[in-house]
Amino acid sequence: MGRQRGPHAASRCWEWECGALTMADPRGLDSVSGPAPGARRRAWAELLAGRVTRQKPGPGTGQKVQDSAVRLLRSHLDWSGLLLEVEGPPCKKLCLGPLIDHDGPEACSNLSTSFIGSALRDHASQLGVPVAVLSSQMAASSIVRMCAAGAEHAHRVLLDTEQRKKLSSLIEITQYLLAHSMFSRLFFCQELWKVQNSLSLEALWRLHVHNVVSLWELLESCADLQAVVSWLFRNLRLLCEQVEAPCQHTDIARAMLSDFVRIFVLMGFQKNSDLRRNVEPEQMPQVARDVLERMLLFALEALAAGLQEESPAHKAVSCWFSTFSGQTFGSIISTDAPKRFFSHTLTQILTHKPVLRVSDAVQMQREWSFAKMPPLLTSLFRKLFVILSPEELVGHLQEVLETHEVNWQHVLSCVSTLVICLPEAQQLVHDWVARLLARAFESCDLDSMVTAFLVVRQAALEGPSVFPSYADWFQASFGSARGSHGCSKKALVFLFKFLSDLVPFEGARYMQVHILHPPLVPNKYRSLLTDYITLAKTRLADLKVSIENMGLYEDLSSARDVTEPHSQAPQDVEKAILLFEHTGKIPVAVMEASIFRRPYYLSHFLPALLTPRVLPRVPDSRAAFIESLKRADKIPSSLYSTYRHACSTAEKNPENTAPGMKVEPNCVDEPLKLLMIALGGLRAAMTDPAQYDVLSAQIAVISERLGPALGVSEDDGSCEASKIQLSVLAPELEQQEQKVVDLLLTSFCQNLMAASSFAPPDRQGPWAARFTMTMCGHALLPAVLTRLCQLLHHQGPSLSASHVLGLAALAVHLGESRSVLPEVHVGPPAPARDLSIPEFFNSLLTCRTAESSRLCLKFCTAAISYSLCKFSSQSRDILYCCLSPGLIKKFQFLVFRLFSEARDPLSQEDTAGLAWKPLGLPSMDWQRAALCLWRQRTFQELLKEKQFHLTYRDWLQLELEIQPEVDSLSDTERRDFHQWAIHEHFLSQPAAAGGCDGDLETACTVLVDVLLDFCQSSRSHNHSENSDLVLGGCTGNRDIFSRLQEMAADLEQGPAAPYSHSSSRGHFLFRVFRRRLQALASGWDVAARLRKQQELLMYKRVLLSLPPLVLVGSPQVEQPAAPDCDEFFHLVNSELLNLSRCRPCPSSPLVPFSLACTVLQRNFCSQGGALSHDITVHFFRGLLNACSQSRDPSLTANLTLTACQTKCPIVLTSALLWWPRLEPELHCRWRRCFQGPLPPELQRLQEAQQFAQSFLSPDTAAPAPGPAWVSAAALHFVIQQAGKESVESALEKLDCQREELLVCLFFFSLMGLLSSHLTPHIRQTSSAKAGDSLKALHVCGEILGFLQKRKISWLVLFQLTETDAGLGRVLLRLAPDEYIRLLPLAFYSLLSYFDKDALIRENAFLHVAVDMYMKLTCLFVAGETSAVSTPANRSQELQSQAGAGAGLGTFSSQMAHPTNGDPVGLIRKARLFLLQSIPQCPKKSFSNMEELLATSGDWDPEVSTALLSRQQAVSDTDLYQEPHLF
Fold this sequence. Notes:
This protein has 1526 residues and is an all-alpha fold. The protein has 73 helices and 5 strands. The radius of gyration is 52 Å and the shape is elongated.
């Protein structure tokens, strides 16, 4: 019966039919009822003899038979077999309960277990042993027999299905026995350990899981603990192998392994464990630790020996390392046991077989970088880092190094993994190294020094994105006086002794760093440094590495071997060209190499740079770089000539061009393929974007492969440009760079979309930031930004939704790293300025067209949504770094502009979450996404920040950029939007929120200010160089200008019209002008003057676009009813009159402004002393409008024009200049409005014009009306416009005019003379311009002749000052400041016309002549004569007309041929004139001469000496002359 198997074994053995027992096997009785001791064994026939007659069953027969059967079974049961055979509830036909317990069928729910318990109790009673002992023995024997059934698998740790079923039945019985105190766990465990080699690990696990006996009880019951440790280790190793093997019981194996590890960790590493056991308290924890340590030891030794993929050992190690996870320890994570276990494991790893010496570590550590580490070891480190914090890890690492002998490979591998996978640990490692250095120099601790250098070098191997390069660290630590080495001589000796000891073992790279960036050493200890450098150079020579032949951009901290100079030189050339392209300057490294490293520069760098090729027609970056070096004398002439000759030959024979200029495709494709494979691995890991350690490991591989793909060294920190220079209009990239950048950008976009399909940005971990920093390395950032500029600014409409999302997220992470990234210097169309990374992206996104607006909306929506979701749990400060305020303002602008529903006030309802999820959908609705973001409470709270809120000024700036012809809004829609934005949105907003406080005048003021700013910026010039279009034609201006005109009209029609100017504040427009002019940079340099001229031109255009009443203002209520024109008069006198007449040379960088300057002069001051026609007409139209609002129009006009005579006389002279075009309009409008003659003051101007015209007629000239300067101005303009014959006849009539008129006319002619040299004549040839100058000079000379003939004093015109009263003050206000400063030039241009008696007759002449000479010299020194040319050689007729006295005969002959267009020649003439005239001057001419000379200083020693000598001679003559007494 004991041999029967199967679930129904018991039922097959016995069948009860009507209470009769029928034996299934006829031989079964022999095995059931054996003979009693000493009894005779009866034959089978004898047994049957007494049963021939069938007995009739009586009332108790059945019960008797059952009792007999039970007694028979109890006496002959095989307990071990029975325990194996009984399972589950028996067949319904079996009713053992009543037979055993005699208590009825309800006595026990499980009849088979009750039966076995009763049988065991009876049997134990018969044997005289405790039933618990018997049952325990029987159960142990059954388990051993069950496990032995699978003996064909000698090393199997798992049960098969049949064994698992039998064990389940046994466990059920055992649990019953335990519940009835019929089982001894201790005895059971002891019985098991007697046959431990036959036990299955799964059997023990199931006994533990079902609470039959715990693993702790099993272990403590064993006498030989070491044997148990060995058995457990062997079985756990087999279990690990079977976990990784493909089978149907893998889940059971994994659960077993996790439970065992969890149990061992709790047993071995939990404090205050329950130690109520029979063994020593420390034995059980030690057993658990021994098992775990042996498993770790096995794994580490397997790693050291090298593992092959798919080998059993590899599977076992991988499986064991997988147990170091949160899934394994999740249920016990609240205890301190996992952390203790991880710390202990880390210690075991770091101290495993410490056979490597420090010298070995120095030599081999470059092979222990993260990318070269075994993946299994990196995975183990990453799993250990999960529970331990960065601070705990660094502290533990420090403690182990201080207290143990360590395995340097594992220690340094741990450091690499630490800085790669935990960004927080990077600074901790840096601080730890600093403490090590301080301790090392404080006590000359060699161990601390060794640790510091090894740790720094290892961390630096992982690239500057995670740790500074070794060169940077060494220079920062020892290159300044703050280093710890400089505290004493002892510290210096210690440092150089240490560095010297490293020399035989370390690589050439590190010695090159020490030589090129040596420690700072006081001069008295310089010998220590020189000794080390000599030793290092000797070692480098042994290694066949020359410090002089190092590449310019070699990575001194790279782990790669030192490259040969001929292979490094092409890389240096390409990088130098790249830097030159971005900065426009010769890189510093090239300049330094040309001086300090000439062998490499001449022998390797220049030959690589000057490789012959076919030169492009348009010089490229390489050609420009070569020419810059040639201009800087950095290329020998012979080498350059050879290069040019070879290039010429290459043009004739292209097939002979050196092949070294192009990189072979095969050489390039291989690194690109490796990079693509690494990027593919990162894409595969995106299924769980929160696994930062896994992603960081893959990103580290990508970073390592970027350098070869780009063809540069691993160090990206050598880019010496602190700024990145980009041309937004024409960004260019090398083909190889573009391939690499496109791979990276595509990978980033794909990874972001993949990661977003699994988790939102805030649960994706920091992979994106780490990937972004990788793209910022390897000198790749300029290329990345250039490519982004191409994509966003030039190819934006072609970008797909995933591209926009990815690039927006990339922009966010680049902004996150803005503190460590250089600024970007952008060119046109944006202003040339330095921008941070977020501002750079803002500059790339414009809203000018419908397409660019759509792209900008998509990008802003994606960037803002990503930022708010990514950093939702962080402070707002990080948002300020990631996002440009301009980007958020553009989003608000476009939402308002494109979606009318967004213009309504937001309701209190808020959507559930951030709008990132819809952005990840393939069919993306950007309008829905933008509106969803707009309605977010988080976003609306962000807009409350002042820097992110769209103000009225911001709105105007963005709206001005819109190009109406390609706008997404129609003209009607655009007008409606403008009306809503101005009148409904911004006008009513408070000023603190960027609105206007309901003040329409404020709205106008801001609009004008923004309009002027926009037109002044370069954005308004990128469509046309014609400055006539600067204001009215720059895109988007016309609609905004219309809004300004509408608002100005509203103000004029309001109840309190501001045009009366009665308020002390004045008109808003002139307030804007005044404030802006004050803010402009003052100065007389070309740039400042041109900028001011352009600003004033825009002022004029604004004034002309508004009602003319702005210039004049409404009449005041009180009498006299004169309008207030003071603000306009002030603008004319201070600015419009004083415009500079400068002509930049064509080579000037300000050439784009020259046209604006020319147009400005043509539009403001067409002639000296007059305004342009349009502003003049606009003023008089305003005057007529003011008269129409006055009670006495004629009086208003008279008062206004009378005020002009003293406050702004140039208005009247301008009216005289344009009178032929102005008079018809004045007459027509006055007659139509007032039906009367012109006011007297206008009639006076009409009479002056008639007087001037009479000079050109053959009739007698009419008398000149007053004031004289008005008539003189009219006459001057007529003479200027007349032909040569008319001028001659007009000049003849001057003899009879009044003195004051002649003086004023001479003044205007002087202004005309200067104007002929200053005012550009764009359409005139040089000969025509020279003719104009000669004509102006002739007119001046003739008028001067009349003045001298009539002995009228004219020298006062060259001594005008602000303190003058009357006529002098008026004339001064008619001349620009620059004309007044240039009067010395006009004075000495008229030397040929001076009268011979002038020196004697005019006592003040010498004083004026000396003063003019001094000022002329100062003008030349200041460079103000560069834009002025003196008159050309005059004809002999002009020279002969100038009379010459006896004393000036020689001078006149010498002055007959003045220098043509040469200011120096004019000064030379003036000097000669003074030196010859000083001796002939009377003594009265020398009065106050000393004061004049004292103010000028040592301006001309020879002239000054002549003056002083002549003055002294005159004084001496007076001393000896007899006095006239009578």
